[in-house]
Fold this protein.
Amino acid sequence: MSLTWEAVIGLEVHCQLLVPQKLFCGCPTTFGGVPNARTCPVCLGLPGALPVLSREAVACALRVGAALECVTRATSIFARKHYFYPDLPKGYQITQYEAPLLEFGGLDIDTATGVRRIGIRRIHMEEDAGKSIHTDAGTLVDLNRAGVPLVEIVSDPDLRSADEAVAYLKALHEIVRFIGVCDGNMEEGSFRCDANVSIRPAGSPVLGTRTELKNLNTFKGVHRAIEYEIARHAHVLEEGGAVVQETRLWDDAAGRTRAMRGKEDAHDYRYFPEPDLPPLRVDADEIAAARASLPPLPAEIRRRYVEELGLTAYDAGVLTSEPALVRWYETALTHHRNAKGLCNWLTTELLGRVAVGELETCPVTPAGLAELVALIDDGTISGKIAKTVFDGMFESGESPGTLVETRGLRQVTDTAAIEAAVREVLEANPTQLAQFRAGKVTVRGFFVGQIMRRTGGTLNPARVNEVLDRLLAPTDNRPDES
Ligand code: ADP
Ligand code: MG
Ligand code: ZN
């Protein structure tokens, strides 16, 4: 892209709400299953079936609004959005249009030039459509997904690059997972994104004509599609052409977008208020409850980890990559407050062996790991022995304290015992001792290795070095030898 262009991007994100039942009926929302088994007259769109709004889904949407600092409308309206598609049995989708539940929010993202707030224009509730499955024999329709509750989170056109768009999307993805309103599974379509892209001469206040990109189901895909589209727009404009407002599909394999259909204008959908549903009223108590139910958000946790626990930004980022990791880590911290030590053992040793999803069932518990770090911190075991203990914890599920005692791994700091071990090694290796005395100082390392091996690494290394140096010193400096 030539330097004179500025990209403008706005994202529309569909998030499947983590509630057990569909938006307007009692059918389950679980993914997959026998096609069309999770349906009823309401979600099949049979004539005469009436929708009943799920208040649980509303409560869930209110939590999204609270996390994104939106204004909640006391009265919002459901509307019919008409279009024909085989997987939309009613011939319209129930959504919100003129009076959405939530508006005027924002989300802070980290950009190359610092933290920027991206406006959230609106968040509305709507039902999902079914799924068309294209096969060689024809297209099949599965309506298990029809009626599943979604929120659509629409940003302002505040993003200026593919990097910023991905930063925003990741921040949003993280928040909805942290507050437990969405499983964030992009492969199963629980979190999907459309990107609107336009460009304009840098400094221009006027928005250019946009294209809408669909089929973006990975962060990488979002990034590549936006970059591609920005370059395509620039090329079209520099050739003297005009960008056509349209919906385009990202073809990940080919690495390009292609036209899918002309972009509808709102009037094409013939929106009108849903006559089968009363206006949605939300009172101040419900809004307050949503706010009160929010856990700390990831950005705030990261700030606290850096400022209060002294972790690096990198470590804080790793720990907050998953809500389950934060819970595990914070439980461990309640047992032993060595933030850095616990973080290292958790992120390198434990996550080197199990996935985050397996932490809950893993034999190494938060209390167990905390005990291990405490044993290192109070000098009971060395860091090296701790790895042996950790192996034992992982294999047997026993506590580190038990393992240290039953396997005799307690670190020896007693000088007399260490001295006895050192003398034993020196006496057992007269040849090497003679070499050392003759000036071959590298033999010292051999002694250390022998001492540690004989004692299974349980001797305090610093004390071993002290004692060894003393016993290897020239004879006239050795007070205890005659
Ligand atoms: P719809 O796509 O349903 O017609 P909107 O017009 O409200 O809805 O816009 C949807 C998204 O497109 C929003 O995220 C908005 O920020 C973004 N958007 C609107 N105009 C532009 C533009 N000219 N360039 C880039 N993004 C835009
Ligand atoms: Mg749109
Ligand atoms: Zn149903």
Observations:
- The mean pLDDT is 92.
- The pocket of magnesium ion (ligand 2) is lined by residues 12, 194, 212 (CB under 6 Å).
- The first strand starts at residue 5 and ends at 16.
